[in-house]
Amino acid sequence: MRLGIIFFFIFNSLFAEQEIFQHVKINLDGNNQIKQLYELGIALDHYKKNKDNTIDIILSESEKNILIYHDINFEVIQDDLTSYYLNRSQPSIDRNFLLGSMLGNYTLQEAINQMDTLFMLYPNFVSEKDSIGSSFEGRTIWAFKLSDNPSIDEDEPEVLFTGLTHAREPLSMMNLFYFANWLCENYNSDVNANYLLDNREMWFVPIINPDGYAYNESISPAGGGMHRKNRRTNPSNSSCNEGTQQGVDLNRNYGYGWGANNSGSSGNPCSAVYRGSSAFSEPETEVISNFILSREFNNVLHYHSYSNVLIHSWGDGTLPDEPDLTTFREIGKEMTRYNGYIVGTGTETIGYGVNGDAVDWTYGTAGIISYTPEVGSFSDNFWPSENRVIPICQDQVYSNSVFAMISGSDYIIYDKIVNNRYPAIDDTISISLVVQNRGLKNSNGSVIIDITPLNSLSYSNIDNIVIETLASRSTDTTEILLHISSDIQNGFMGGLIFSLYDSSSFNRVDTISIIFGDPQEIFFDGAENGMIEWSDNDSWGTVFDANEGLSSITDSPVGNYVGDWGSSETQLNTIINFSGIYYPFITFDAKWNIEQSYDFVQFQVSNDGINWIPLSGDYTSVGSGSGVQITGEPIYDGLQETWINETIDLSTYSNATQAWFRFVLKSDGAVEEDGFYFDNFYIHGYSRFMKGDINQDNSINIYDLVMLVDFVLLENSLPDYILPIADINFDNNINSDDIIALIIMLMSSNSY
Ligand SMILES: [Zn+2]
């Protein structure tokens, strides 16, 4: 026996001499080369395409040899990724969540312990772990459920989250444990966590590929193991039956479109994307597909890492038919609202096609809405630095809770068309309210929308709307009138609060608010006088390309912006004083062409001229975390070819005494585009005055009349801010009609 143990150790240490994996930059000679790489069986799930016609890619030694054999040009950027991962790692400071011992990720045993711990700590919400089958090497594949009454199969919408299909993608598992902990810890403090635990059955299979993951631990116990596939021995090709080349790619082994071609998967057992000998040849894919078919899941997330994208079918790059395409896009957009991931097919998001993957089977065969989130950026890579583990997990919490929410019925205000954005004080506003059931289940009975006034100044023509029934993914439109008390003054807010629900849905609350009165112009630049109002640290200037007038302002008046522009900005010279101003807002016309997901323009505000805050508007998107974009920050990127009119809300700067503003462009080293243009830059806000209080003493009396007569008859000029106060009859003119109107006001109020 002793001999046996020694043998075991010798084998183990032999196997510890693994292929190294490298970060390699390939110089493409034409677009067809990507296809050539596919067909050579290179795993292209995570390559990064650059504008200089290169791609960054992670390759094993043997894959690199394929490049050499086929005379493909490349350059090695990191020569040993496992040691790179281990050496670069910074410890996590955040300890609000228990981390594991492989660069912060759990080992297989630690993950199993976590399932037991969750069950022990939260027996009212977490089921005992449940075996759903075994892997090739006989390891148990575990599932557990989060719900109230976790031991009972209740009649609640079911949703599934899976992880670690690919053994070197530990964040696909960690974020599920983070989410499960978040739900339990916040049951009493967060309305979403509370609702989801009470009204959903959320299933988790955090480790689909336990053999591959255990193997990674054996070759690199501190983390950084680069094995991807399961541990199937492939007898037909013994040369690949060792190390990281062994096994089948589980995400090419599902039955939908299995082996459709050799670019979306490979028939070569040595390839990292080897599809196996037949569809569902692998116990792991069979276990997962049987599990999915055995339950009533409405939606399934199959987690992977990395690339900061959210991928939906089809793997071959074609688009699903409507209405599913819109469903995928709308739900995906909401899921990525804060993490900025790009939503689309694999071809649209990263430029790769697959066949035999889990999402195509889940959607195409099982008929269930499904996505693959690829979590973490290229720089995070397969094994992020330990201090990135919790932030990456946190980026998925909103996504996961939206996904669990839409597993049932779920009502939102889908659109609101207000007939008058800047209503005067005596206007009544008509609101076209479009309610959507964005969820995947029909309404449980009728849908109620309770309407409550926002404050004592507002009231509606109805208290509630009752929609008899609202099918999954459909909308209903109702016209509502918002009346405003005649007591309201300029610059005050009115509005309505809506609460939307059926007898089992989440009670979602939304608000429509409107500022009443005439906004006052505080600043304007039409970009017709050069850069007189702006100072820049680089090349910003005017150009003859305008929405109105002749010119606009742009970051690079001649040609494209440059790569690696750490920061190029143009700042408004005037420091704006909002004293006495309420609900200030900025509008400008803009258009842009900026590398999507990598470069960006931001519009920023500062209250000290030193620290800057990015501002969001109607047209901003969300930073992706790739390139120079920071996850979650409001930015402008992508292509906006025609002029749009942007509005930036500055409500939080009401009464601020100093505000600086600037546009900033940042770019990474690869793609360079035309950049950002703006024109007709306005700053507005509301002053809270009394109509007729021309001398600003807070009462309306004979002195105001004397001043008004003075202005009108003697043609004295009025300061701009007095114009709306003196325009008693709201006709945008100051004339004798206003004198008459003011006399009527004074007589009726008896206040002189
Ligand atoms: Zn993967």
Summarize the structure.
It contains 16 helices and 33 strands. The chain is α+β, with helices and mostly antiparallel strands and 752 residues long. It folds into 5 domains: 2-88, Alpha-Beta Plaits; 108-405, Zn peptidases (Aminopeptidase); 411-515, Sandwich (Immunoglobulin-like), CATH 2.60.40; 520-687, Jelly Rolls (Sandwich); 702-749, no CATH class.
Compile the SSE list and pairings.
Blueprint: H1 2-16, E1 21-27, H2 32-39, E2 48-49, E3 54-60, H3 61-69, E4 74-78, H4 81-88, H5 108-121, E5 130-134, E6 140-146, E7 158-162, H6 171-185, H7 191-199, E8 201-205, H8 210-219, H9 283-294, E9 297-302, E10 309-311, H10 324-335, E11 342-344, H11 346-349, H12 358-364, E12 369-374, H13 389-405, E13 411-418, E14 429-437, E15 447-453, E16 458-460, E17 464-467, E18 475-484, E19 493-501, E20 508-515, E21 520-525, E22 534-536, E23 541-543, E24 552-554, E25 568-572, E26 581-594, E27 600-606, E28 613-614, E29 621-622, E30 634-635, E31 638-649, E32 660-666, E33 675-687, H14 702-713, H15 723-726, H16 736-749
Parallel strand pairs: 7-8, 7-9, 9-12, 10-11
Antiparallel strand pairs: 1-3, 1-4, 2-3, 5-6, 6-8, 10-12, 13-14, 14-18, 15-17, 15-19, 16-18, 19-20, 21-33, 22-25, 23-24, 24-33, 25-32, 26-31, 26-33, 27-28, 27-32, 29-30
Helix pairs in contact: 6-13, 14-16
